[in-house]
Every structure is written in structure tokens, then in C-alpha cells.
Design goal:
The chain has 132 residues and is an alpha+beta fold. The protein contains two helices and seven strands; from the N terminus they run E-E-E-E-E-E-H-E-H. The N and C termini lie far apart (47 Å).
């Protein structure tokens, strides 16, 4: 796997951590329910915050070195970290952000459009089958 250090871009956004800070995510599998992410999958990303300004990212893609990432990407990684923690998470400040508790990536209009399209499809199927 290639190794990259994701660095805060100088904005006020910082990484949060938890008792279970390592996140394993494969964006290719987000629309299916059968398989979870695994280290042998080509699109998998393993991320772990190592300080408020730096997070570690390991992937099979060609991503190496120190990379400055924008504020929205930091908040997205924080959403993953908060979503995978067991009970508590740790932040550099006492302020909590709404996006950390969101189940959906609010910054991505394409994802939101696909989500609404799939949700409407399931609602229409339920109506056709006569289920509430």
C-alpha cells in the first residue's frame, strides 16, 4: 500500500480522534450491502488521524507524500472517525459540528442526487407492492 500524510490546509478545521480512530472505507462499495471493505480491495482507503493537523492515509492507489487537503475533506474524515467510534471522540476544541453527526456527505451534490434517486425508487416499489 502507498502511504500519504494528509495535512490541514491552514484553515480552522482540525482532525478529531476516538478510541477506535482507524477507518476502513471503499467508495466503490457504498451502494451495495453484501460486502464490507477489505485490505485486498483495490479502492480501499485506511485513514487514521495522528495529530490535529495530520492524518495518515494508506491506499492501493498512487497517493504518496504530504498532501494538503481542503476543509471539506477534513470534515468528511472527521465524519468517518465520529461515525466509527464506540462511545466518545476527542476534538481539539469544545465545539461540535453538525456534519460530524450526518449519515450522508452533505458536500457532494452528485451523491445526494443518487441517494434521493435510490430512495424514491424504493418508495415507489413499496407503493406498488402495497407496503406502508
Amino acid at each position: 500500500m502507498s502511504l500519504a500524510f494528509l495535512c490541514a490546509d491552514g484553515s480552522a478545521a482540525r482532525f478529531i480522534t476516538s478510541g477506535d480512530p482507524v477507518t476502513l472505507f471503499n467508495p466503490d462499495l457504498q451502494w451495495q450491502r453484501f460486502y464490507g471493505p477489505g485490505l485486498a480491495q483495490s479502492g480501499v482507503e485506511l485513514t487514521m488521524p495522528i495529530s490535529p493537523e495530520i492524518a495518515l492515509c494508506m491506499t492501493w492507489l498512487n497517493l504518496k507524500g504530504y498532501i494538503r487537503i481542503p476543509r471539506w475533506r477534513i470534515e468528511e474524515l472527521n465524519r468517518f472517525t465520529r461515525g466509527h467510534c464506540y462511545e466518545q471522540f476527542i476534538s481539539h476544541s469544545p465545539k461540535k459540528k453538525f456534519i460530524w453527526f450526518s449519515r450522508l456527505p452533505l458536500h457532494d451534490p452528485f451523491f445526494m442526487m443518487m441517494f434521493v434517486r435510490r430512495w424514491l425508487g424504493t418508495q415507489i416499489q413499496k407503493l406498488k407492492l402495497g407496503k406502508p
